[in-house]
Design brief:
Strand order of the largest sheet: 11-8-5-4-3-2-1-12
Largest sheet: 8 strands, parallel
Helix content: 40-55%
Structural class: alpha/beta
Strand content: 5-15%
Shape: globular
Number of helices: 12
Distance between the termini: 16 Å
Order of helices and strands: HEHEHEHHEHEEEHEHHEEHEHEH
């Protein structure tokens, strides 16, 4: 009887160890640095090669703007953490039909887990503040239906629900302490924030000092936008000094959240970057400025610190973007935000290397592999005795 109990105990120990290796969840974002993998282009590398590039760069956190199955399959077994996107065009349907939301989650998320580490679903992108009140009205319903679908599948603790906002949701952000949400946004924003607070989601912000400087070059010191030495700005209401614009933009968001009654909600940057080329009215879009911004941003994130207003909340950011995307509409700058060119070579040097074709697919390090080998060996030994 005792030997049977011992054998059963050993079996459950081995089962626990092996399943924890496969199913361990580290959260929606590991570390401080991530990247947006946009694909509005006809000349970028295949998803398999993109995986090699990301692993070479040691970039683990990745966002895409849809749930393309070729990408999800390429990311399978890589250890890369992925946030998929529910495009704006799906929001009205997902909001009005819970069954469609369930089917979407089942087909595009559940069916790829756990091998493809889908850690989040971005519900739309920059919906609020865009002037489409019908789409804005569908955002919360879509988020709730997708979350409820995850809950029915017992995935709500594995896959996080978010949505990214642009600066257009704010009525004023200078100085940071004056920032509040626009009146025509509040009616949609407050119920959304209440839901996100209930489920533990952050406030996601797309913040671009590049755009702020481009629109106001006479009023903004470019050094302030590029993290270079500068006098910065002083906010008399909070008695805080800012030596770079990104920190000020983030703290402006914190002030708007505080004004709306959500003082404890975390702000995460889901897009930020600098164009390396632009039109004649975008003179700051140069390779040197893009290199300076992204290099200094990478250094700033590596320090794992917060902002002047929230010094203990470590800043996390997804950089925009992985590649230059030649099919994006709009100004020339829209096609030149990539850290890499379509052929996998670097756009400028911020410490990453160009694509090499001989990198291993797995993201598991040799030390982790050795650790897993020891655990499995011990488990096999226990079963044998």
């Amino acid at each position: 009887m005792r030997s049977s109990k011992l054998l059963l105990l050993k079996f459950f120990f081995v089962f626990f160890i092996l399943t924890s290796i496969e199913f361990q969840v580290d959260g929606a974002f590991v570390g401080t640095y991530g990247i947006n993998y946009g694909r509005i282009a006809d000349n970028i590398p295949s998803p398999d090669k993109v995986v090699l590039l990301l692993k070479q760069a040691k970039i683990r956190n990745v966002r895409i703007y849809d749930a393309d199955h070729t990408v999800l399959e390429a990311f399978s077994g890589t250890g890369l953490d992925l946030v998929v996107g529910l495009p704006n065009g799906f929001l009205k349907e997902m909001s009005s039909n819970a069954d469609h939301a369930f089917s979407w989650v089942k087909e595009n998320v559940q069916s790829f887990l756990p091998k493809t580490r889908i850690r989040g679903i971005a519900i739309g992108n920059e919906v609020l503040g865009g002037g489409d009140s019908e789409l804005a009205g569908a955002l919360l319903g879509a988020a709730k239906n997708v979350y409820n679908a995850l809950k029915k599948m017992n995935l709500e603790d594995t896959v996080q629900i978010t949505t990214a906002h642009s600066q257009a949701v704010f009525s004023d952000s200078y100085p940071p302490s004056s920032c509040v949400f626009k009146e025509n946004v509040v009616q949609f924003m407050k119920p959304l924030l209440e839901f996100f607070q209930q489920i533990g989601s952050p406030f996601c912000l797309n913040a671009y000092p590049f755009l702020a400087y481009t629109y106001n070059p006479k009023e903004i010191d470019i050094n302030y936008a590029l993290f270079k030495p500068t006098e910065g700005i002083y906010d008399p209401k909070t008695d805080l000094h800012y030596d770079n614009m990104l920190d000020a933009q983030i703290d402006a968001a914190y002030m708007a959240l505080q004004d709306a009654g959500f003082k404890t909600m975390e702000v995460m940057i889901t897009e930020t970057g600098w164009a390396s080329k632009g039109d004649s009215d975008e003179p700051a879009a140069t390779p040197e400025n893009a290199r300076t911004y992204n290099y200094n941003l990478r250094k700033r994130l590596a320090k794992k610190k917060g902002t002047p207003l929230r010094p203990k909340t470590v800043l996390k950011a997804y950089i925009f973007a992985l590649f230059n995307e030649n099919s994006k509409p709009g100004k020339s700058s829209e096609t030149h935000f990539g850290l890499f060119k379509p052929d996998g070579t670097i756009s400028y040097d911020i410490g990453f290397n160009s694509l090499k074709s001989d990198a291993p697919k797995s993201l598991i390090s040799s030390s982790k592999a050795a650790c897993y080998y020891v655990i499995i060996s011990v488990s096999v030994f226990l079963l044998m005795i």
